[in-house]
Amino acid sequence: MFSKNYWKSSADKLKDVRYLALIALMIAMKIVIGFVRIPVAENLRITLTYIIVAIEAIVTGPVCGLLSGFITDNLSFMLFPDGAYFPGYTITAMAGSFIYAILLYQKNITIARITLAKLFNNYIINVLLGSLWSSMLYGKAYIVYFSTSLIKNTILLPIEIFLLVIVLNFTLPFLIKKNLVNRQDLPIPLK
Prior knowledge:
The protein is mainly alpha-helical. The chain has six helices and two strands. Strands 1-2 form a two-stranded antiparallel ribbon.
């Protein structure tokens, strides 16, 4: 994972038109799907963008994931501003992509790895960082945002893991067939 080739293989995808087109498509999908959301509380909503982020991370790796997270957050804000611009959310988008990539890129995709990626994203990125950003932006105490975000992310965690497993079971064979994933992983067993 921390070898030079691991990072180089992700960075090299930025020189390949096929991967650049795929990254652009993923950015567009994240922006569009990001607007299909269910509001839960102040600055707290349910979306399905994590599925696209995970697929992109599996295919393109951490370097592309960081760049895509940066572009997605900033482009999304420029096209459809929703509240104040805050660079913390850009960090959140980049870190979320990075976590999925570190745990899933060039790895056997297992339910345990998916669970770990969702745990880190839900609790470190969404709960800890997201609550900090909300507190800084909206002035309420950190614990207010932390508690509502913790409840939301805990309730959604098993559902999100299940949905991600289902989607990856369908998409991994296609990604392998199209040589977008350079390994012969079998679909994730649901057993």
